[in-house]
């Protein structure tokens, strides 16, 4: 299956969260994900984009298809040059937040996607890569 090149969405205001979510939704549908998986992917992208707005103000989300562990996956890269995450392991715990949030963004994204990898250094920014395996056979008839 041939799918369009990566979607790249600059994140700088709340409207960009919607644009990133829609890009992920569109690509996931084209790849044959079920409606449930499409919704989970879009929600995970929303959570990560919201974190960029809340903690750094600016960043970028790139959504595309890549090979991970020998399989095709819808891959989301989120990158910013913000303050970084001092304790990534703790940030992946439900309820932990260094800001005003509920501490559900990163742990929620981890539950919604097949894999989530976070690289962050205080003062250097954060790179989040998350992916969901592309289904072997497209789900025909999904809305």
From TrEMBL:
Pfam families hit by this protein: HATPase_c
Keyword annotations from UniProtKB, A to Z: Kinase, Serine/threonine-protein kinase, Transferase
SUPFAM superfamilies associated with the record: ATPase domain of HSP90 chaperone/DNA topoisomerase II/histidine kinase
Key word Heme present: no
Domain Histidine kinase/HSP90-like ATPase, first and last residues per copy: 36-136
Membrane-crossing segments per the record: none
Keyword Iron attached: no
A GO term for molecular function: protein serine/threonine kinase activity
Protein name: Serine/threonine-protein kinase RsbT
Gene source species: Mycolicibacterium pulveris (Mycobacterium pulveris)
